[in-house]
Each structure stands twice: as C-alpha cells, then as structure tokens.
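Hey, quick one: can you model this chain's 3D structure?
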Amino acid sequence: MKHLVMLGAGHAHLHLLSTLAAQPMASVQITLVAPYPRQLYSGMLPGFVAGHYALEDCVIALAPLLANSGVTHLQRSAVGLDAEARRLTLDDGSTLGYDLLSVNSGPVQDRAKIEQMIPGAREHALFVRPIELFGALWPQVLALADSRALQVVVIGGGAVGIELSMAVAHSLKGASVTLLAGDAALAASYPPAVQARVVQALKDRHITVIRERACGIAAGEVLLGNGAQLACDVPLIAIGAQAPAWLQGSGLVLDEQGFIAVNEYQRSSSHPQVFAAGDVSSRIDCQLARSGVYAVRAGPALAKNLRAVLAGVEPDSYRPPDKTLNLLSTGDRGAIASWGNWSAQGRWVGWLKDRIDRGFVKKYRLPARR
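Sure thing. Here's the predicted structure for all 370 residues.
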C-alpha cells in the first residue's frame, strides 16, 4: 500500500481533504500532519482584528473534513526532511516515511531568523504567524486598549502589514498606529495606481508611515535603522512569508529564498516524490507573488495530480492565471481591488471581499458528525 503524507492544512490541502470521503484513493494510506485541529483562514484575519468577525467566523474545523476520509491526522509539525530517504522528522522526535509527500503548510515566520534581524522580537513582539496563536493573543491587546490609548507599531510594508495597520486603527480607537515599511515602496508588488490608493488610505486613517527598518525591540520601544527610538506598547511583526528553516537540510532544490522549487506539475524539480503548493513553494517556470489566491486556485490541480501519480498516471501541467483579483481590506469594511492594472476602492469592494471570504470558509466548513 502506498503512503501519501500531506504536510500542512493549507488552502490546497483543504480542497483535497474535501474530496476524499466521496472519492477515496484505493490502496493508499494517507496521513495529514498539521499542528492544530482547525485552520484559521488568513484572508479574514484583518477583519477579525478590525472587529468585523469573531474568531469562530474564520475557522475551518478539520475533524468534519477528516470524517470518513480514511485520513490519519497527526497533530504535529515537521522539523526535518530527508528527501533521499523519503522521511519526515516531527517535533516529538518521531519519523514518518512516505511514498509521496505533498507540502502545503502555509507561510511561516522564522522566529530565529527574525530575532537575528530584529533582536528582542521574540521577547517583546506579537507575531502574526502562526495565526492560531495570534488569534488567541489578540484579545489581550484589546483588553489592554480598554485601559489606555496604545502605541502600536506594525512592522512590515507588504500586504499583511498594510491591512493589519488599518485594521488596528479601526479597532483600537484612540490608538497611535505606525507602519514601519522598510526601504521598499508600499505595496511594492502592486501596480502604481494601487500603491497610490494604499498611501491615501493610510493617510486618511491617520496611520504614520516610516520608511525605516526595525533593527531591535526593547520594552516600550522599537529601535529604527536610523538610530531613532520609537515608543511602542505593541510591536506587531507582519513581515512577509519565510521558508521553513528545516527545508535547508532536506536535500530538495530550493530557490534563493529557501522555498521548494517546483515545476509546472507542482512537483519538486529535484525529487519527483515531493509536491508543494502555496507559500512554501516557488514555481521555476513562472513568477508568482506569494498570495493565498494562488494557493486556493492550485488546490484542484494538486489534488488531480496526486491522484494521478498514485494511480501510476502521468500528471498534467498546471499554469496559474496571469491575472488574479487581489483585495486589500482597509479596516472600515471597505477594500481596494486590483486586476492587472485596473483598480477600484470602496465599501462595495469590501462587500465583495467579505462574500468571497465567507464563501471560502463555508465551502470547507462541514457540520460536525455526531
């Protein structure tokens, strides 16, 4: 019997799990390795911070998806991979062999690496990822804000930092919110029209933008690259996705940032027994931004190719769309939309984003079986 190991419960793997009860894989043992019993949908995180969603609104429980699927769930994380030996090492010291490995573990924030870049971050900062921990800790910030006006510094000028800074400004009335954007342009991966909308939206919400990097965090302050000290009650680490540190010794071919290099089949360019999708991977045949949009769209193609390979059939190539609809929430139930060079902004865009996000969660939120 062949053994498929699914590492992570990211967007693409949620799709595969949703199909297994109705379309089981014959003569295949399947193990899901994921550290939590549920998945928090990252697209709704800014709305949660802004106060528009309860945490439970953003949750997809894994147990109903796993029921009658034949999948064994190990509530663990990977800490090592030997691609030659086809063996995962888990955080409890155990090992897990596989015939086929699919990695869809979602973006991570490497705390050791961030601590090297920003000393004091581990002790004093609130990390956005893992989202499960952030979701548990955010109510403590809300409770602190009830006692006094807070000074919040959001570190990271990408989409996550931009959305969260506006969400914080909306949620914490009277708070001072600063976005440390680094030396790159705000929303650098977006067209100029979207960048202009972002700059104006931040200005309208009285969010201070500082084009400096954080180089240290101490109690009550963030140290800037220019030597200045910025008063801060809540430093929020919202820098972009990083590759899991354990990939470095895996033997897999990685890109320059340490992500798994995959081909048009979403298959490792060095080890055909390994597939990967979402933020943990990097396509070698086309340039893709790290976005949940691509991970969601990759789900059906990944599921089809895993089934094909396990059945001894050649996989099909998958080409992501050249243009996707990207939606940035602005904290106040509005949003900014972009499609190629086209952009729009307003409450109607926020309504559209809410409809899409709720639809995604509803699609995979099955009723618990009694």
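One thing worth noting: The chain has two domains: 2-35+75-108+242-322, 111-240+326-354.
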